[in-house]
Amino acid sequence: MKFGAMFVDVLRSVFTRPATRLYPKVRTKAPARLHGKLYWDPKLCTGCTLCVKDCPADAIELITIDRATKHFVMRYHADRCTYCAQCVVSCRFKCLGMSNEGWELAALKKEAFTVEYGSEADLAKLFAVEHPGEGIPPAGEKPASALE
How far apart are CA 110 and CA 8, in angstroms? Predict the structure, then answer.
């Protein structure tokens, strides 16, 4: 490469604005059809498990606490999810959706990718069944055995 051609390129780049955006400081609005984090409305859910059956990545678990009173807990594995929204399409009761605002899903630990949806009472019952003999952890914390 000739020195003159390189010098012209360097001079041109000094006087032009960068093409990149200052991402954390300047945020652009996400597209309306972006498939981000899955959300679930337990009040509308009947426990039909169509979403679980149609998920190609096995990213959804629907755990039945009490079928008669329609108490369920949904465990969502964001690290398995392919964000195809097949579960949203399959849900007849419109209790599932993909957020276009919750799309920044990076984390340092794997435990952050498993999200459990449900009421506090239902989550406490599930924890008592899965971890007998341990105290119920404060909201938002995982038990010591889950961190290992």
Answer: 48
Fold of 36-134: Alpha-Beta Plaits (3.30.70)
What single-letter DSSP state applies at residue 31? P
Q: Quick one: CA dihedral 101, 106, 111, 114, positive or negative? A: positive
CA separation for the pair 98, 84 (Å, rounded): 10
**pTM beyond cutoff 0.70:** yes
Q: What is the pLDDT of residues 41-69, one digit of tens each?
A: 999 999 999 999 999 999 999 999 888 88
- As beta bridge partners, residue 77 has 114
Judged by DSSP in three states, 60 sits in strand
For the chain, the structural domain boundaries read: 36-134
Q: Is 21 helix (H, G, I), strand (E, B) or coil?
A: coil
